[in-house]
């Protein structure tokens, strides 16, 4: 694997002038991090054995829909959970200048006027909308919106685009408005998404839904007696999307934040935030019609599926999960769901990528990247994952900011990062003092053309 990787990079360096990063020797050594084990090589059967041996009873599991684990019970159903889709919140498709992008949750919010219909969103506005409409905890929502503001938005105006770059703002010629979520490949948006295609396989178009990917998900439960796209179903789809990218995309790349954190969240958000918590199913059910509405899919009489970009909608009679600390979807809820994904798809916590050919996945040791603060196995410990989620942002974002901003603008952006994340950070979490991104140089997919 190692020699293959080096050969692939050597070829790339001679053939692709845009790939200018210095070649760093691959430093993976199993067990370099304290308590680390060699999960980075992504040997699924080995990882499954390790997971089976782990005593999951010490994990405060609180899943909505995983049979056999504590089924999450929400506080009593309340009519206020119904999301208004009438009047000012009536569904309207995007106009010619309105922006939509890779996130169906955000596209639907904009189509219903819960976010500006233009698709350009404010930092706090974005976080508040996803909390109020979907029940995503603010401590999770704000970092997501903050990340968008900093890595692909405008840190001075504190806005970001849910899709392509918005038109430049007068007076801010140096920083512009950012590239938007659609232009954030490897920084925010990543490969192996639930329904969007990989960057290198689709000429950089990461926003358009690919019907075969949606169909792969849809088919998993469509013929069930009571179809419900719950976490078990999404775990199967997660396995498929990861293996599909590794086996079809020579440039597949999974960096430390966009991979294990964002791509997996994109999968768990589907049952966690799109399920309908009606009076009949207070713990939530995600049926076929609801799934199709959220993904802008219609089913034709012959059973084929059609997609209309930007037509995502919140269904009629849709009830979000209840609000309040017991009910909202927190980073810890996500970390617990990640353990369930890993039981079906062990590779979900591996940082790494293909090395220029399909099926050449090489994992890197997270301990090497994080200066020993976190190892790959830590991502399967929900409490440690929560630490990792915030700490990796603090480690990665300054690098990105320094690569594009200068002077007081850079200082303002760095302050924004620290000040906004501070309230959510547990001081007992290990800090990533020495983040090292040299590992990326061995993966051709890390560099954008
Ligand atoms: C401020 C909040 C949010 C931000 C910044 C955000 C950002 C993103 C980004 C960057 C992606 C692309 C990830 C990838 O490459 O796979 C994405 C995908 C996705 N997001 Fe969001 N998101 C937010 C909230 C939500 C909410 C509330 C939901 C659910 C209601 C949601 C559901 C999804 C899903 C299902 C995908 C995967 C799309 C696909 O491939 O089919 N997101 N989001």
TrEMBL record:
Example of a GO MF term: peroxidase activity
Keywords: Heme, Iron, Metal-binding, Oxidoreductase, Peroxidase, Signal
Cofactor: heme b
Signal peptide boundaries: 1-22
Residue span, Heme haloperoxidase family profile domain: 87-336
Record bears the keyword Metal-binding: yes
Pfam families linked: Peroxidase_2 (PF01328)
InterPro entries in UniProt: Chloroperoxidase (IPR000028), Chloroperoxidase-like_sf (IPR036851)
PROSITE patterns on file: HEME_HALOPEROXIDASE
Family: Belongs to the chloroperoxidase family.
PANTHER family in alphabetical order: HEME HALOPEROXIDASE FAMILY PROFILE DOMAIN-CONTAINING PROTEIN, STERIGMATOCYSTIN BIOSYNTHESIS PEROXIDASE STCC-RELATED
Protein name in UniProt: Heme haloperoxidase family profile domain-containing protein
The species this protein was found in: Endocarpon pusillum (strain Z07020 / HMAS-L-300199) (Lichen-forming fungus)
């Amino acid at each position: 694997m190692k020699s293959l990787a080096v050969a692939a990079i050597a070829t790339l360096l001679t053939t692709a002038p845009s790939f200018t990063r210095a070649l760093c020797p691959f430093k993976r050594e199993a067990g370099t991090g304290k308590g680390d084990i060699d999960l980075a090589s992504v040997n699924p059967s080995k990882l499954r054995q390790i997971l089976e041996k782990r005593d999951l009873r010490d994990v405060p599991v609180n899943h909505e829909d995983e049979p056999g684990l504590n089924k999450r019970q929400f506080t009593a159903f309340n009519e206020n959970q119904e999301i208004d889709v009438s009047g000012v919140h009536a569904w309207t498709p995007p106009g010619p200048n309105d922006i939509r992008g890779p996130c169906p949750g955000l596209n639907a919010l904009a189509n219903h006027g819960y976010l500006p219909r233009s698709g350009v969103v404010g930092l706090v506005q974005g976080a508040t909308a996803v909390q109020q409409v979907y029940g995503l905890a603010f401590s999770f929502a704000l970092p997501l919106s903050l990340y968008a503001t900093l890595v692909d938005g405008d840190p001075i105006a504190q806005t970001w685009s849910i899709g392509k770059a918005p038109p430049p703002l007068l007076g801010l010629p140096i920083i512009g408005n950012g590239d938007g979520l659609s232009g954030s490949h490897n920084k925010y948006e990543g490969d192996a998404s639930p329904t969007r295609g990989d960057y290198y396989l689709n000429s950089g178009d990461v926003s358009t839904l690919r019907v075969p990917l949606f169909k792969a998900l849809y088919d998993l439960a469509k013929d069930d007696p009571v179809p419900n796209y719950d976490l078990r179903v999404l775990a199967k789809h997660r396995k498929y999307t990861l293996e599909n990218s590794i086996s079809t995309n020579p440039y597949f790349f999974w960096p430390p934040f966009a991979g294990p954190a964002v791509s997996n969240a994109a999968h768990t958000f589907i049952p966690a935030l799109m399920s309908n918590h009606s009076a009949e199913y207070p713990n939530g059910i995600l049926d076929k019609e609801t799934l199709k509405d959220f993904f802008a899919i219609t089913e034709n009489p012959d059973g084929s599926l059609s997609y209309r970009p930007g037509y995502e909608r919140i269904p009629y009679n849709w009830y979000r999960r209840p609000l309040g600390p017991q009910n909202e979807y927190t980073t810890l809820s996500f970390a617990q769901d990640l353990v369930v994904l890993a039981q079906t798809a062990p590779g979900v916590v591996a940082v790494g990528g293909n090395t220029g050919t399909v099926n050449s996945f090489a994992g890197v040791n997270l301990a090497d990247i994080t200066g020993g603060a976190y190892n790959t196995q830590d991502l399967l410990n929900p409490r440690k994952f929560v630490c990792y989620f915030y700490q990796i942002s603090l480690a990665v974002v300054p690098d990105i900011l320094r690569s594009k901003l200068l002077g007081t603008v850079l200082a303002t952006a760095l302050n924004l990062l620290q000040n906004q994340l501070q309230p959510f950070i547990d001081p007992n979490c290990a800090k990533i003092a020495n983040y090292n991104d040299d590992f990326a140089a061995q993966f051709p997919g890390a560099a954008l053309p």
